[in-house]
Every structure is written in structure tokens, then in C-alpha cells.
Amino acid sequence: KAEVEKLIASGSGNWQRLYAQLEGEYRTLHYNLAQMAATQAISEYKTVANIWGRGTGKTTFIADAIRQMMHAMPRGVGAFVSPSNQFFLTRIIPSLVQGLEMQGLYQNIHYFIGRKPPTSWKWPLPYQPPSKFNKFITFYNGFGIHMVSQDMPGDGRGLNLDFIITDESALLSKVKLEESVEPALRGSNRTAFNKSPLFGSILHNTSMPLSPTGNWLFD
Length: 219
Fold this sequence. Notes:
Shape: globular
Number of strands: 7
Order of helices and strands: HHHEHEHEEEEHHE
Oligomer: single chain
Largest sheet: 7 strands, mixed
């Protein structure tokens, strides 16, 4: 991580050297049965709801799904939906960074959160890049994720998405999902991705709903 900071501070465009160095550090991950079943399911079903107890490994699965989608849909764009922007900052982002590291993807070398990558790195942009990057995650192959918050009215409207991921889905409003985000699942480049089994996916991830407002997940 110190080398990444030096690279960015110097303005060097030679990010591939660190990329190759990290590839040499990869290790095998061992998944539990729930994670294995979910990983299999996302290639077979367009909508998957993982309702798991605490500590089952939602973060590992979400990061694995993002890695798969990133490779399957370069320059594609999706949405990660959370109850609030504060929820993103305090709970989702720290866990997501940790999970992506387990997948061999490091912040500020394989992807950037809330900012554009350095111009000298010459990364491709998504087919439909955002006008602002403050709520966007950009990966080295042009793949990107909008961070959509339900506490911001209309957040997610007007986008063209290739997939949707939610975390702590039991806390989300089904009505807001159906009105603002799901209609955007029309693809950023259908010609490029329509043969991918991950194109058009909706992945819900949550612990057991504790109130009736989350019971829509059982449907």
C-alpha cells in the first residue's frame, strides 16, 4: 500500500509493475457451503437473495461477485444500493475494500472509490461514465459501480445499468427499488454483454429481516 501511495504521489503511469507484483501474491480462498451455493446461483438465476446469519460471509461473496462481473463485463456499469450514504461510508465501503483485497483487488491500484484514476494511467472509461465520480467506483478495465443511496430522493434514476447489488437488503424500501433503480436495469451496452449470464443480475444480500418491512425478500 505504501508503494501505491508513492506511485500516485509521483504521477507515474507505471501502475502495471505493482499490478504484476500483486498477482504473484495470490492465494487460494476456501468458501463455505453458503458462499459456494450463491456463487453457483448467480450464473444460473437473474435474481438471487442471500438471507444469511451474521458471520456467514456476505462480504466475501459480494466481493467475489464483483470480481466475476468485472471480468465478464469490462466497461460495464452497475449499482450498489444501500439504505443511506452514511451507511455506505461507515459499513459497506470498509467491508467491501477488505473483501476485494481477499479477491486480489487493491484500492488505488485496481480500482478507485469516489475519484477518477490518474490520467497518466490511461484506464478505459465505462461505456456510460458518470458525470461526477464522487459516488462511483472505477476499475482498471473500465468497469464501474454507482453507489446509490435510498435516502437521496431519485438517486439511481436516469442510469443504464448492467447489474444491481444490494447489502442489508432488509433495510431497503422495495418501492424505492422498483421505482428508481430496477427500471435502470436496461444495460449500458446490450450488444457487448447480452451473452453474459451475469448481465441483468440482481443480487440481494442481507441478514434475517427483523421487521415486516423486509419480508419482501422472501418473495
